[in-house]
Predict the structure.
Amino acid sequence: MKHTVALWMIVVVLLALTGFLFINLHKLEAENTTLKEAAPGLGDYMTTIQLHAGKLWFAADAANWELAAYEVGELKETMESAQKLDEEKNGVKISPVLDAVLKTQIAALQEAVKSGSAPKFQQTYDETLAACNSCHAEAGYKFIHIVRPAAPPVTNQRWERDDKAKQP
Ligand code: HEC
């Protein structure tokens, strides 16, 4: 009799504990979903990459290699963040392709910026854009086609170096 009561008490405690854990698990799952929804997605990172690519063009065009180096660095960092998403689009794993582009085209672009040579820069810039577009096509986004920018992406930033600027 004593044993039966003790056993029942254990059962009740265990049931209560299971219920408590279950409720908390659900809470965590809900929080995780909210976090995922709030975090930037691949498309958000791509828009940032596009902005850096645009600024990079005008920095290099103004032979402002210090700013150009900064913009390639930012572009690279954004690609690395996008890599962490481990996305798969239409059967294409995005992260390994990003890794290849980082090690090949972006590395060459960074070297060109370091060298301060405009023709080298333009060549590696075009090769980078080809890599962007080739992944878009591969991953089922052929309609996203990136080109050399015709106008600066923003109008409130100076591209020339300070010592070359006409305005204060
Ligand atoms: C490894 C593959 C890959 C590479 C490399 C890549 N992209 Fe993308 N990009 C994608 C995918 C996939 C999407 C669609 C993402 C989505 O909307 O979920 C995309 C979307 C975009 C978009 C559309 C964003 C929007 O909301 O309008 C732009 C712009 C873009 N990429 C720019 C670039 C630029 C610039 C580069 C190169 C510097 C680049 N991408 C390199 C895979 C890639």
The radius of gyration is 26 Å. The chain has two domains: 1-39, 42-163. Strands lie at 88-89, 92-93.
